[in-house]
């Protein structure tokens, strides 16, 4: 099997995002107001993550994040309200750097990059050949793929937005057939398809069957990238493929047309 093996680790080429420029994630203590100049998006606010209610474990919080992001992408009114947060710091009770906080989703949608293809944003993106990209978003219980095989590891853990590239991998087509999945549908899935959580990366020991590759492929060590909590967009969005794992704005999951709308009442209130 030749799964999508990429030898380029470009993660080191990109500067850390969200440093000094533009609206920032902020934190406030539960029961306290948002930090000065920031808008609260924590529980009880109009921008709370409804899926995070009762999410206590890390696993539950990871599930709540991808579920929320994909849900939000399909809510025109909520997107318009979020766009009105543009230019503001957003504050939540989650620790800064907490990669399951929905604050980053809102920040990216409120402040989408001027260049929709830019490598900037608070999530990470990954391009996979077809149909691997789509197979990664099938829940494991339905026979979906949970492991992405790469010849390079990454230290990054957190949300990854999944892009189905232009190229088709015949090994993926065969794998989809073996798994009893609708092969032609999955092969068709090109563009931004959804999100999943990257929770572990380890050197292959011949583990993680049936999707994990053996230890070595073409003289290179194989790493298993373990994904959980896949969520698929109802309508995929258009984009452009790229090499490696790179910073990506959550706004790529939202249709361009929706990003142009701003809720006027909120816009006034926030100025
Ligand atoms: Zn939070
Ligand atoms: Zn493994």
UniProtKB/TrEMBL annotation:
Record InterPro entries: DUF4326, PUA-like_sf
Biased composition (Polar residues): 1-10
Residue span of region Disordered: 1-34
DUF4326 domain: residues covered: 38-107
SUPFAM superfamilies, sorted: PUA domain-like
Pfam families: DUF4326 (PF14216)
Protein name as it appears in the record: DUF4326 domain-containing protein
Source organism of this protein record: Mycolicibacterium sphagni
């Amino acid at each position: 099997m030749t799964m999508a093996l990429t030898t380029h680790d470009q993660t080191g080429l990109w500067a850390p995002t969200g440093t000094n420029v533009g609206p920032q994630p902020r934190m406030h203590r539960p029961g306290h107001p948002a930090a000065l100049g920031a808008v609260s998006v924590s529980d009880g606010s109009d921008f709370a993550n409804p899926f995070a209610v009762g999410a206590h474990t890390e696993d539950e919080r990871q599930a709540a994040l991808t579920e929320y992001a994909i849900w939000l992408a399909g809510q025109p009114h909520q997107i318009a309200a979020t766009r009105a947060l543009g230019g503001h710091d957003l504050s939540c009770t989650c620790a800064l750097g907490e990669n399951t906080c929905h604050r980053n989703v809102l920040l990216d949608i409120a402040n989408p990059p001027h260049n929709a293809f830019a490598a900037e944003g608070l999530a990470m993106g990954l391009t996979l050949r077809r149909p691997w990209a789509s197979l990664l978003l099938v829940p494991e219980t339905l026979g979906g793929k949970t492991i992405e095989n790469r010849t390079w590891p990454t230290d990054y853990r957190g949300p990854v937005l999944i892009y189905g590239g232009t190229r088709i991998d015949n090994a993926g087509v065969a794998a989809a057939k073996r798994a009893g999945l609708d092969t032609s549908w999955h092969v068709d899935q090109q563009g931004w398809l959804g999100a999943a959580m990257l929770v572990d990366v380890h050197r292959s020991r011949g583990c993680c069957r049936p999707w994990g590759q053996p230890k070595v492929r073409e003289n290179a060590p194989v790493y298993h990238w373990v994904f959980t909590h896949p969520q698929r967009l109802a309508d995929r969005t258009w984009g452009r493929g790229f090499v490696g794992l790179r910073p990506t704005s959550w706004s790529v999951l939202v249709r361009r047309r929706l990003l142009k709308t701003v809720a006027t009442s909120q816009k006034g209130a926030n100025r």
